[in-house]
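Figure 2 data, in text form.
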Amino acid sequence: MKIVTLVKHVPDATGNREFDDDGTVDRESADGLLSELDEYAVEQALRVGEAGHDVEIIALTMGPDDAADAIKKALQMGAHAGVHINDDDIHGSDALATSKILAAAITKIAPDLVICGMASTDGNMGVLPAMLAERLGWPAATFGVDLAVENNVVSIRRDGDIASQRIEAQLPAIVSVTDQSGEARYPSMKLIMAAKKKKVDEWDLDDLGIDADEVGLGAAATKVTSTTERPPKAAGRIVTDADGSGAAELVEFLSAGKYL
């Protein structure tokens, strides 16, 4: 069974992220790393193999040179190979263009299953799995808190506020998993050393048969038109309760700030 896991290189959320003049993220302003939510996708792919299936796990990403670090982390966790889509013309691609590029790459790889995180930690849109399923004509099972594959069928459990659902899809399929699906493993020294020998292919738009004018910032249906710098953190407020009025003052503060 061939499994593709989508892995995205994102700016560190703890850093001070900035934007370029064209409205795209300035990737030089903060350190990058594999999106934490995508680690759960890699983990679930590895667990499919540990459940007794013969799997080949391929980590797929798109982005500039630094995006290769996302593949590197996936390989260190235990993925077998990687594919990096690297082309200057994809700069500024929105979710629609991203899904077009990734769908073409998935078609070329021809996996049985694609596992995604529930969203990226920079965009937080969560729409890519459904977009990929639509472009590929595959079923999608999204927001799974567990995952199992049996008899050419993938199943997930999706937890709602008042009930849980068991959703099944015939392979090939697209699946997304949440951060409740199981703690992602920490790479061992043995896997870190082994990752250096694993194959990573680099493709551009020509390899995928996509014209440059179909993607990138110029073709984007959504763009960032303006940004506002994060306001400085305000000093905290201390509520004293010397005369017994502290509780009422606290409720008033919470109500005024619409925290209740």
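Caption note: Residues 36-50 form the longest helix (15 residues).
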